[in-house]
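Q: Hi! First time doing this. I have a protein sequence and I read that you can turn it into a structure. Is that right? Here it is:
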Amino acid sequence: MARRDLRLQRLSEVPLFRACSQKELAAVARVADEIDVAPGRDVVREGQTGHEFFVIVDGKATVTRDGREVATLGPGDYFGELALLDRTYNRRDATVSAAAPLNLLVIGPREFSGLLDEVPQLNHKLLAGMARRLHELDARA
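A: Yes, that's right. Below is the predicted 3D structure, encoded as structure tokens:
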């Protein structure tokens, strides 16, 4: 299978992109960089400035806040969207570390903005995901 086809197949398996057409998936693939992160390495660190949005294609990550583990992420999960949605506050709220080898898609601010314009259903999915996270935080409080 060609690299481009494999990337489109992987994207179609990510819940955030599942409802996207092949054309829309191609738009995501066009703007995203793919990176691999070794276990034990931090992807983002709490308190640092952030400008990228990440989607986990494969692997497992842990999320810590104030040194305490608060979540585990896996394929289809995403993080970093807050730094792109609210550019006035772009400090990372948590540290995300690779618990197993991670394969990530990374989208920068200009690409993210263009992608939301080009693939409008992502707006709804991101809002729904953020609402779920808020509900989870409220339930813990």
